[in-house]
Amino acid sequence: MLPTHQTCIFKDQMPENSPHKCALRVKKIEVKHGGVMVIVLLRYAHVIEKHQNCVLNTASLSTGWICAAGLIMVGNFQVDNAKVLHYVGAGIAFPTSMLFVCLQSALTYRLAKTQGEYNVAHLRLCMALLAFVALVLSGVFFCQESFVLQHASAIFEWVFCVIIMLFYGTFSFEFASMSGDTMAVLARGGALGPAGREHKVDALGSLGGPGPHSHQPENMSIL
Questions:
Q1: Looking at the domain assignment, is residue 46 inside a domain?
Q2: Which structural domain, as residue segments, surrounds residue 45?
Q3: Of 193, 209, 212, whose CA–CA distance to 201 is shortest?
Q4: Helix spans in 112-146 (H)
Q5: Residues in Cβ contact with 164 at an 8 Å cutoff, skipping those fewer than 6 apart
Q6: Reported confidence tier of residue 28, pLDDT bands at 50, 70, 90
Q7: Fewer CB within 10 A of the end CB, N or C, for the chain?
Q8: CA end-to-end span of the chain, whole Å?
Q9: What's the total number of domains in the chain?
Q10: What is the pLDDT of residues 106-149, one digit of tens each?
């Protein structure tokens, strides 16, 4: 996510309304929203693979993709050209991203079994609280007419965005154990749960052991 106070890039470093600079920024945001959609989808499938589907997991998938839709609007409708649509996109992206991290924090606590998993849950909860404070302060300062407070609002927007991106980075803890079964979950539309995974492991064992599949989790975590 990127704050909405900036236009294309810094105005004092580019020609006014430069199409090349605006196009570059749009492409960067499109890459980011694409990454959001992929990470959200992989997290959804990974929860189903390792545990089972639940309301929190489905709600997280929905809010994550709605957030990505808001980012699309933010990236394709700039403040100078389509101010209303730009802020509508921001109004969609910021609250849904906040809701996503809250749902994921609750989901992490629900699925945690080891001390390490609880530590990850505590970390995500702290990041969610910090993101909420930054978002509230940004919104409060944004409504003020003071020049200084407007800049403070932009700073808190950036703080919020950085926290959200770091939150997405914490999924690397779970993705380290990702395997080809995660892709099977996506291929089957979320139908492969723990029972299906155990059946698949037994089938592989009957065929002569894991073989080349033993390196698959490591390769998937690198991806």
A1: yes
A2: 11-175
A3: 209
A4: 115-142
A5: 1, 97, 101, 131
A6: low
A7: C
A8: 22
A9: 1
A10: 999 999 999 999 999 999 999 999 999 999 999 999 888 888 88
